[in-house]
Design a protein that fits this description.
Blueprint (H helix, E strand, L loop, with lengths): L44 E4 L2 E5 L13 E5 L2 E4 L5 H11 L25 E5 L15 E5 L26 H10 L7 H9 L26 E2 L3 E2 L29 E7 L29 E5 L19 E4 L7 E2 L3 E3 L10
Parallel strand pairs: 9-12
Antiparallel strand pairs: 1-4, 2-3, 4-13, 5-6, 7-8, 9-10, 10-11
Length: about 350
């Protein structure tokens, strides 16, 4: 029997431990974007050269990102941006894959929970009507029946006409399945942070020393009073289409904000104290002292819900974490690929 969290909860505090049996979907479920005038973003990978960098954070709020340490990495290819709805749709149509959020829930895994509540779904952010304390995230997170990558906010919503938005409600299980299909893999945590620095080293923000250089927002994060009054000063209330903000020094987009991104590493709060210097791949097991019974992987980059007021883990060096079968409408991914040099792969 699996542990019995409230499956109506979502995101990090939600332990959605569902079965992962794949089922074939009806071809009529396929989504096409041909009716829109929006061009889909072609898949593109960029070369991240080998090098040595300083990893981690000295911010006392990020105890699990300490100590700061040097890491040396081989070169690798990385997706220019998060995997989009259009790209994920190709995978789904080619494989009949169903994400964890779309799969039926086995009542045997959740004894005592009424069958009518065992409905596939995922975590959706819902603004509150007034300011609230930050001690209970369930005030702004809800498990929404029917929420998944096709229907980001529930059955009444759709990704039709939004091919360039990052695919969301993607669990680690889903991201890993896509990566294998694409002949890629998920980045290690070290690769992700190295790429996010863009060749500039550790700075207060991944893009530089100022939050708003020249008065311009450089990433899709939250403005206003969280969680009730989003001013959308950066132009987006929630998801932004990929490439809406400037690329970093390596040409990568959205390495900060927009959606959290899965990394391949198991999450352990104490890992940095014993991480190897060359090409670290994370610990061999997972342990989160806050939820010791769950298997978690690292997430990086923050999302459209992060700000200095709440969820400050969009800042460089900080780490996120998530149970491998949990998802939400601010959680996506991108992939990497190994290669000897830029000359070994010309086009993706």
């Amino acid at each position: 029997m699996k542990s019995l969290p409230l499956i109506f909860l979502a995101f990090y505090f939600c332990s959605v431990l569902l079965s992962c049996t794949q089922e074939k979907k009806n071809p009529s479920d396929k989504i096409t974007f041909t009716e829109t005038k929006i061009d889909t973003v072609p898949e593109k990978m960029l070369w991240i050269p080998p090098g040595t960098f300083t990893m981690g954070s000295s911010d006392p709020a990020f105890a699990d990102a300490q100590p700061i340490h040097q890491v040396t990495l081989k070169g690798f290819w990385m997706d220019e941006h998060e995997v989009t709805n259009a790209e994920f749709e190709k995978f789904v149509n080619a494989t009949n894959y169903k994400t964890v959020a779309e799969q039926p829930i086995n009542p045997a895994d959740f004894p005592g929970v009424p069958v009518e509540n065992l409905v596939p779904g995922s975590g959706v952010f819902t603004p509150t009507a007034q300011p609230v304390s930050y001690d209970n995230p369930l005030q702004w997170w809800a498990y929404v029946h029917g929420a998944n990558w096709r229907n980001p906010k529930g059955p009444q919503s759709s990704v039709t006409g939004r091919p360039n938005d990052p695919a969301v409600h993607i669990s680690y299980t889903d991201a890993e399945a896509y990566a294998k299909w694409a002949g890629k893999r998920l980045p290690t945590e070290a690769e992700w942070e190295y790429a996010a620095q863009g060749g500039k080293g550790r700075q207060p923000y991944y893009w530089g020393n100022e939050l708003k250089p020249g008065g311009k927002w450089m990433a899709n994060i939250y403005q206003g009073n969280f969680p009730d009054a989003n001013t959308s000063e950066d132009g987006f209330e929630d998801l932004a289409p990929v490439k809406s903000f400037p690329a970093n020094g390596y040409g990568l987009y959205d390495m900060d904000g927009n959606v959290w991104e899965w990394c391949s590493d198991f999450y352990r709060a104490d890992y940095y104290a014993k991480s190897p210097q060359a090409n670290p791949k994370g610990p061999t097991d997972s342990f989160d002292p806050d939820e010791p019974g769950l298997i978690k992987r690292v997430q990086r980059g923050g999302s459209f819900l992060c700000s200095d007021q709440y969820c400050i883990r969009y800042k460089p060096g900080s780490r996120g974490k998530g149970e491998v079968n949990s998802a939400s409408n601010n959680l996506g991914f991108r992939c990497v690929r190994d290669a000897a040099s830029p000359k070994s792969i010309k086009n993706f």
